[in-house]
């Protein structure tokens, strides 16, 4: 809420005297920031991300953190719609590709084409494939292959709930 208040305080200070100021939810604030010339993509500096994301979102999306297994709000969530990047709003996954893997994090077997980038991650003494938002570079989680899940791709995109926001529109 502090971020929203700070951005709305700036808007209030620069607003014409007779204009009505309406407090906006965070996603609208991000849209306002974008229309003010702040580009939310891989080149956006951490100082801007810190004003737009809460501490947990910043830690996971920008510092490649991980939420505890079984704690994310989308782990056992199966509504129809689209999952978007919590950082920049880019559509990443469709609900039809979400499945219950039992791993403790939301699992998807495929991304929206072009929405997710893959990178080799050799941290913690193991080789994994990190997945990030193709637009802003926000850390989503990791993708695993060949685990035998009965999905069309035999992949499991293990995604942090904090990295995504659900949009009920398909």
TrEMBL record:
One GO MF term attached to the UniProt entry: peptide-methionine (R)-S-oxide reductase activity
Highest taxon in the source lineage: Eukaryota
EC category: oxidoreductase
Cofactors: Zn(2+)
Pfam families from the UniProt entry: SelR
GO cellular component: cytoplasm
Cofactor note: Binds 1 zinc ion per subunit.
Family, as annotated: Belongs to the MsrB Met sulfoxide reductase family.
Name of the protein in its database record: Peptide-methionine (R)-S-oxide reductase
Organism: Chlamydomonas reinhardtii (Chlamydomonas smithii)
């Amino acid at each position: 809420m502090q971020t929203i208040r700070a951005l709305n305080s700036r808007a209030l200070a620069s607003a014409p005297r007779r204009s009505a100021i309406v407090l906006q939810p965070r996603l609208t604030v991000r849209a306002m920031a974008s229309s003010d010339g702040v580009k939310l993509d891989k080149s956006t500096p951490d100082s801007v991300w810190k004003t737009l994301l809460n501490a947990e979102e910043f830690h996971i999306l920008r510092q490649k953190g991980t939420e505890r297994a079984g704690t994310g709000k989308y782990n056992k969530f199966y509504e129809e719609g689209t999952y978007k990047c919590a950082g920049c709003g880019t559509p990443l996954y469709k609900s039809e590709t979400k499945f219950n893997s039992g791993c403790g994090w939301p699992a998807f077997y495929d991304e929206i084409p072009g929405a997710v980038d893959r990178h080799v991650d050799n941290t913690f003494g193991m080789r994994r494939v990190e997945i990030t938002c193709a637009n802003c570079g926000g850390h989503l989680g990791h993708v695993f292959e060949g685990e035998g899940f009965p999905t069309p791709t035999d992949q499991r995109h293990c995604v942090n709930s904090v990295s995504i926001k659900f949009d009920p529109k398909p």
